[in-house]
Every structure is written in C-alpha cells, then in structure tokens.
Amino acid sequence: AQTVTQSQPEMSVQEAETVTLSCTYDTSESDYYLFWYKQPPSRQMILVIRQEAYKQQNATENRFSVNFQKAAKSFSLKISDSQLGDAAMYFCAYRSLRFYTGTASKLTFGTGTRLQVTL
Amino acid sequence: DTGVSQNPRHKITKRGQNVTFRCDPISEHNRLYWYRQTLGQGPEFLTYFQNEAQLEKSRLLSDRFSAERPKGSFSTLEIQRTEQGDSAMYLCASSPQGWQPQHFGDGTRLSIL
Description:
The complex is a heterodimer.
Chain A: E1 3-5, E2 10-14, E3 19-21, E4 24-26, E5 32-39, E6 46-52, E7 60-61, E8 64-69, E9 74-79, E10 88-96, E11 108-109, E12 113-118
Parallel strand pairs in A: 2-12
Antiparallel strand pairs in A: 1-4, 3-9, 5-6, 5-10, 7-8, 8-9, 10-11, 10-12
Chain B: E1 5-7, E2 10-13, E3 19-24, E4 31-37, E5 44-50, E6 53-57, E7 65-68, E8 75-79, E9 88-95, E10 103-104, E11 108-112
Parallel strand pairs in B: 2-11
Antiparallel strand pairs in B: 1-3, 3-8, 4-5, 4-9, 5-6, 7-8, 9-10, 9-11
C-alpha cells in the first residue's frame, strides 16, 4: 500500500516571499501521479498542481512549482510571491496508474500542512 | 460546469440515528468517489463508482455504511446506527474517464451528539 507523509503540520510565510512545503511518499510502483491540493477554511479542495512520475520535468503552474525527486520519493511544492489568498491547508496526494479496475483511481492523501501568510 | 454539489452541508444527529448524504457530480463525469476527513487528517478513501457500478470499497466502510449510485448520476451515502467515531467531513469527488484529476465538493460535516 502506498503512504504519503507531510512532516510539516504548519508553515508560515510573509507576503511576497517564497515557501516550500515537503512531501514524501512510499510506493513500489513505477507509474503514478502526484498532486498538491489546496483546502481553504470551510471551502472545497481544489487542485493546485500535478506531476506524472514518468516525466522528468518538474511541473509548474504560475506561482506554483514542484521539485519531484523520483529516486528519493520526494515531491515538494514551492509557492513564489506568496499572497494572502494562499493561506490554506495543503495536501499532497498519490494516485496509482495501474490499470486494475478501481485501484488506479483513488487518491491517497498526506495529513496536510497548514500554511499561514502574514503581512 | 456547476461543480460537485453535496447536501446537506452540515448534519447534526444523535448517536444511533441513520443519516443519508447526497452528492451530485459534475455532469458527464462517470467516476464518483467518497472520502472521509477527520479533524487534522487528510481525506481517506471510502468507495468509488464508475457509472452505476461500485468498483471499490475501503475497509473503512463498515457494514453500517452503504453507498449507491442508481442511475450513474447522483450518489447517496448512508450511515446506519451512527456512532461518535463517525463524526467527520464526508467529501465527494468526481472525474471523467481517463487520468483527469478529481474535482471535490464542499463536503458534508457530520456531528454526532
């Protein structure tokens, strides 16, 4: 079974600064997806960025980028030019790419990192 | 695209009562998922539907839990004889066929008195 670990329960960053959230995972599979989801207080979870394991190039979405280290099973999220609206819980998630019916679809989440953005 | 809709947003009930939650996925998304999120934890997978077929259930889904998706559109999650440990946020997500990411609803927060 796959596991996802987020070792930083809380992080704080000043507005306009850069912050990196850590995520490690454990799997015996070679093909999978990794995701970062954002969950603002009392609001729905939204996808921030995703990475296909077979791609060596790190994914980037505007101010959000990842550092994917497949051998180390590490998947960190970097937020540049932090904004007040970035304050939220951030979850790292894993999804298998195996073609077993159903098994390939579910997400396995870490415990989350609460990001505070200060003025 | 009106998003994934979940009702009710909040349910308060006494221990031992039955509760039912509803999820309306994004139209034409044939995959639907239920997750449970307890305080301070990430969501945990409960069950998964492809169209009307329930293809996977987690061991977390005890006999008191049942989920349906009768016509491959909306889904219901029922908990019978609720217990204190059932208090959580129940999240629904949907996705189209293929490797597209899941879209989540706002969740239903269940509080057991």
